[in-house]
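User: Can you help me understand a structure? I only have the sequence.
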Amino acid sequence: MALGLASRARFGFYLSVYLLWILLIFYATRGANGPGQSWLAGWQQWDAHWYEQIWREGYPAADPRTLVFPPGYPVIVGIISKPFRASFLATAIVLNLAAFFCTAVLVSEWLSRKFAVSSSLLFVFVLSAPAAYFAFTAYSDVVFMLLLWVLLWLALAERVPGGYKSVIAQSLLLLVLPWIRLTGYALASWLFARRIVALAVLASLALWLGFNRMIAGSAFYFLRAQRLFAMPQGNFFQGLADSLIHVGSDWSRGTSWLEFGFLPLFYLCALAAAAVWLAKRREGLLALSVLSILLFSYNQGFWRSVVRYDLPLVPVLCLPLLVTAKSGTGVASYVSRAVFYALILGQFSLQIYFARLFHAGGWAF
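Assistant: Let's start by predicting it. Here is the structure, written out as tokens:
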């Protein structure tokens, strides 16, 4: 579907740039893996182990803490891997790379038409996201991103399957998304705009609470289990205070300062500003989705992973800059263009740095 939106010439451009990006990440990380470890195995880090364990062992009643991860993604990867007799990790990487490409094409084609901006620049911007390298590992973020943008396209695009078919498709996506990532429950905010289809989110939540009760004896076990993964307790304002403290006190500790201080605050402010801009342009559902996902992702006291959680929202970040650069006049146009290219350069630099760190076994979002 996403690929059908692009002309043959643009599709060739997308594919060429995407393959160059894959080579960039490969060459940037090939020397970053540990001693005696293959390049592929270097991507089996952190949560990737838990996703594979869920597929192979399920949620053992004696140790159900993996309920912090919904089963949708590991089940999809596991089922695909079986007929090809491929490893879980290799299947996940192929699936994620395909999903990320489809997402970038869909976003670039649709938003470029919707806002009359360059599809090529949009495509490159999506690839530059600091957490985009998670397409190379067994994490669920990229598949979630694809399904989210398909949902938004169905809900907002002018020429999509109409009538009850579109409503059914949107409802199914809203039902499934939280079983890929719990962030999908943020879309309960659609009750304010698309009440009928948003009921699917509530149905999904009821099923999830029942699933937790069946496995662990408590409907809300997945919340308590987060403590076992050193997830911080607290709320949005405590997280904001912690990040401000990091920005002020950890500036000499580059990686820590970036991950726990500057980048969470930067993306929070930039994406919130983009959501306000969308709202002013009467893109209410898109703005509501961005804000609700932001609030859901920034809901804890120490935002150690929110740059990755923000990955699905990155495409909207550049829209105000691209629109102003094209339609603005004088200084505003030049400044917007300069900021856009500076963002791309900065994001690619961060992406390569953190990809190497992650591939070597370090914490990187």
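Now, to help you interpret it: The CA atoms of residues 94 and 136 lie 8 Å apart. The chain has a mean pLDDT of 91. Let me know which part you'd like to focus on.
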